Amino acid sequence: MNKERGNTMDNIVITIARQYGSGGKTVGQMVAEELGIPFYSRDILRLASEDSGISEALFGEADEKLKKVPLFKSSKAAYDGDLIPPESDDFVSDKNLFNYQAKIIKQLADRESCVIVGRCADYVLRDYPNVMSVFVYADEQFCFDRAMERNSMTPKEMEKYIAKVDKYRGDYYKYYTGQDWTDARNYDLCLNCGVLGFDKCKEEILAYRKVRFGV
Fold first, then answer.
1. What is the phi/psi pair of residue 191, to 5°?
2. Are 23 and 146 in contact (CB under 8 A)?
């Protein structure tokens, strides 16, 4: 494993993976606000589009297509970092779209302190010494109650939707990394937001950051 990645320890990157409804994105935003650093989620798609010259809509369409296709049975597309040149027929393939997102994630980790939610950022940055990875989860009732507050669905529809989103996130992670999304060994810190709540999750992340990096 290459531990020389990342230009400086002056910037610390926090990646957050999360179950749907667990509040992981909200916790990430709170951490970023507390530290006064940028927060990235779907912004990665816009930045990857600007870097590659590929329409941002295609990045979004790739996500939607993967939600509908029962692939993910193997890790043949596992991220390897290689970008496909524009003259190739595979330039706008799902794999290359992901690779451009990964390129942006690495550039951010080299350049600045920030919080990055989703996009397999923990795996993309696994060799970077200035990165800490967090997985936020919660019990089914907590995720259900919080999701119902934010969406107009019947309880039955919401149960199916939560299961669908979490399955997609797990499949997406497996497809691009070859690893299991909920495996605690993939993360530095796993937090049960249903037990701790948003504020304490934020405090735990900041405390781990201080212990790990001394800042």
1. -125, 130
2. yes
| pLDDT at residue 114, as a whole number | 97
**Strand ranges of the sheet holding 189-192, from the earlier edge strand across to the other edge:** 39-40, 114-117, 13-18, 131-137, 189-192
Name the residue with tokens 């990235």. 40
Residue 10 pLDDT: 78
Split at pLDDT 50, 70, 90, the class of 19 is very high
**Looking at residue 84, what DSSP letter applies?**
P
Q: Is the pLDDT of residue 122 over 70?
A: yes
* 145-199 pLDDT, tens digit each: 988 888 788 889 999 999 988 988 888 888 888 889 999 999 999 999 999 999 9
Residue (of 183, 180, 185) closest to 75 by Cα position: 180
Record the tokens describing residue 186, joined without a space: 């993939």
Among residues 38, 189, 35, the alpha carbon closest in space to that of 104 is found at 38
Paired sense of beta strands 39-40 and 114-117, if any: parallel
| Fold adopted by 13-207 | Rossmann fold (3.40.50)
Burial (CB < 10 A; 0-12, 13-18, 19+), residue 10, is: exposed
Exposure of 144 in the CB half-sphere (CA atoms within 13 A): 11
Q: Where are the domains of the chain?
A: 13-207
Q: Per DSSP, what are the bridge partners of residue 214?
A: none
